[in-house]
Amino acid sequence: MPYELDHVGIAVRDLKASIAFYQNVLGGKLIDRYRSETKGVESEIAIMEVNGSRTELLKPTNNDTSPIARFIRQKGKGVHHIAYHVHDLEKALEDLKTAGIRTLPDSFRVNKHGRRLVYLNPADTEGTIIEYCDYPENTEKN
After folding, report:
1. 130-134 and 78-86 as β-strands: parallel, antiparallel, unpaired?
2. Which stretches of the chain are DSSP H helices?
3. 101 in a domain, yes or no?
4. pLDDT tens-digit readout, 3-20
5. What is the domain extent for residue 109?
6. pTM
7. What is the C-alpha radius of gyration for the chain, rounded to an integer number of angstroms?
């Protein structure tokens, strides 16, 4: 199955300053900005595009329960996850299971744009949080 880089997720403390950096220094464009209080997300998210590449800026909205807040406490701000677009998420999940790679419990979700995603267990990926995602037909990539 072909995999291609979809986006990089960056944990930030100051979303406004991070957006300004991507716009003013990197010449990026703000594609979307929204807040998700879904369990396991609990973040304000800004999707930036720089020369065709996407970056998700993730600011925790709940310092007690947000996984982004926990990440920042443990590792500091910076790269949180790398997302790979797969053409068939169900098939990719079957391939992971066959390879003995686990996903994080309860991490499968559909975002506000219809993107389906799941996070691989970093214990099986040398510590990197990897997201697999797909875009069902008739859903715009956002």
Report:
1. parallel
2. 15-24, 67-75, 89-99
3. yes
4. 999 999 999 999 999 999
5. 3-134
6. 0.89
7. 15
